[in-house]
Amino acid sequence: MNEVKEALRNIEQNYKLFLQQQFTFIGALQHTRENADDMIRPVASISQVQSYMDHHCNNSTDRRILNMFLNICNDLSKLCHKLETVHSGNNITNGILERCKLLLSHSNDLSTIRAKYPHDVVNHLSCDEAKNHYGGVVSLIPIVLDCMKEWVAHIEKLPRPMLYDVSGGSAISEKRAPQDAPARAAISQTPLSVRPEAQTSTSNKDNVQVQGTKHIQKKKLNDTENHSGKLKCPWKPPGRHAF
To answer: Is pLDDT at 161 greater than 90 in this prediction?
Structure first.
């Protein structure tokens, strides 16, 4: 889920840069439409912009801004597919994803969609441009971004075990973790039990060792006294003695 949020933030940053160049984007569409002799119909699909860039673009500035638009749309499409692998889906989230995939389809007709407040991309166009030519294509990215933010908001309200990876492994681990936690806690808190026989044998061994130690000490003491007694000379009364 963190990867999804990070990817969404990166796309938003790229879109902010693109938004600062909206007039350049409209100019590039105007130039390529003139080169294609296609001034009547509106710019109504991603594939139409791709065709303008591939076949009717004569300068690097127009190519750069058109390519920037197409790259953002491509990143949104990849993220949309990634969202399907993050959540198993319910009616609300599936509906949002289906709308995103439809909007990002290269052949989808964008002429009728319009980004509403707080977005002001349409307001930067003239009435003729907004109504007849570019209102739909400039509205595509902000509408899809709003849909993806709505998807994230719905997902965050769902129970955590609902989240899963494609392999399904993380879902199992998340479900098992709460169940195993009490058992692990009980094991860690329960002291190790010792059998009475083991305790008795241990105490007997200790008593034997203590008694053996006392016996050895007593024997050493006696030996010392005997040894010292042998070295002492016999007692003699004071006075002159013959040697």
So the answer is: no
Distances (CA, A) of 51 to 4, 15, 20, 107: 30, 21, 24, 12
State CA 166 to chain mean position distance. Answer: 14
Q: What are 81-94's pLDDT values in tens digits?
A: 998 887 776 889 89
Amino acid identity of residue 175, one-letter, is: K
Confidence of residue 242 (pLDDT cuts 50, 70, 90): very low
Give the DSSP letter of residue 120. -
CB 162 within 8 A of CB 87: yes
Position 13, amino acid = Q
What single DSSP character describes residue 157? T
- Which residues have C-beta within 8 Å of that of residue 163, sequence separation ≥ 6? 1, 86, 87, 155, 170, 171, 174
Q: Which of 12, 158, 143 minimizes the C-alpha distance to 86?
A: 158
